Amino acid sequence: MIADEPCYDLGELAGANWHVHGFYSGCEEMTLPNLVADAEAAGLHTLAVTDHHGVAAEPEDIDGFVSALREEFKGIETNVRFLFGGELSSIAPGVFIDSLETNARMDYRLYATTHYHLGLWGQPEDRSPRGYAKHALATVRALIPTGRADCIAHPFQMDTKASAAVTDRELAEVLELGKKHGVAWGINTQWVCSDPDFSRRLWGMGREIGVTFRMGTDAHERRHIDPKPFLPALHALFDDA
After folding, report:
1. Is residue 119 part of a domain?
2. What is the tens place of the pLDDT at every residue in 156-186?
3. Secondary structure of residue 25 in the 3-state scheme
4. Which one, of 71, 65, 19, 11, lies nearest residue 46 by Cα?
5. Would residue 117 count as lying in a domain?
6. CA-to-CA distance for 175 and 205, rounded, in angstroms?
7. What residue spans of the chain are helical by DSSP H?
8. Would residue 40 count as lying in a domain?
């Protein structure tokens, strides 16, 4: 578990990037030396490498990726804290792609719960917006108490009609559950502005409840390693939430 105090200063949150895809996510320019150089240039204190796991027909070798990165990192000197983990997958309520053994070897466990566009993802019987909202809520409710997750990636990133179908009471319930079990919520800088209404609800309600947020750019390119260029858009979205 990655313990930290809740923070609602967007500038401070932008001092870390908790969602970065590296070379093993098929991003050729995202080598570890490049990630280190760019994190240092951006003045980041923390960077989490969260390569994909379980988004293809056969789960990627996340254990091998993490082991290789840790071995390479031994020869690198930097003041930036690097965490080697994965963007893991909960594809339906109580259904996880990663084993408990793999999960325990991660420095950081970031979970995607709404990649409904992927063929392996569980789909609700009811394909209406409300049906997807209920399925996504059930998936998150089942995940949080297990201790498997440090953070939920791009929470409830779905069709905007589906995210709107999550009621305030339901959202407050899962945010409270995350707080109880020490699970943070991702502020995905490349997603929140595409669903502004839900994002403002998540941020405003999360602040009231006292949850932990972690900023991540979902970077697949070097130009997105630094979260700070996203701050003007985030301030415009959240300052009055």
Report:
1. yes
2. 999 999 999 999 999 999 999 999 999 999 9
3. helix
4. 19
5. yes
6. 8
7. 10-13, 32-42, 62-73, 100-105, 129-143, 160-164, 168-181, 196-209, 231-238
8. yes
User: Which residues are registered as beta bridge partners of 185?
Assistant: 152, 213
**CATH code of 76's domain:** 3.20.20.140
Element spanning 87, H or E:
strand 81-92
Neighbours of 239 (CB within 10 A): 9
Nearest Cα neighbor of 85 from 10, 181, 1 is 1
Residue 204 to residues 105, 127, 149, 220, 238: CA-CA distances in angstroms?
A: 34, 28, 23, 28, 8
Q: How many domains does the chain have?
A: 1
Residue 5 lies in a domain: no
- 77 vs 37: CA distance, rounded Å: 11
Instruction: Please give the residue range of the domain that contains residue 73.
Output: 10-238
**Mean of pLDDT values over 181-203:** 96
Q: Are 138 and 185 in contact (CB under 8 A)?
A: no
CA distance 124 to 110: 23
pLDDT tens, residue by residue, 41-76: 999 999 999 999 987 766 778 999 999 999 999 989
Please give the structure tokens belonging to residue 51.
Answer: 């390569």
Helices (H) and strands (E) in the chain, counts: 9, 8
Q: Please count the other Cβ atoms lying within 10 Å of the Cβ belonging to residue 163.
A: 23
Q: Judging by beta carbons within 10 Å of its beta carbon (0-12, 13-18, 19+), is residue 240 exposed, middle or buried?
A: exposed
Q: Which has the higher per-residue pLDDT, 201 or 190?
A: 201
Amino acid at 232: P
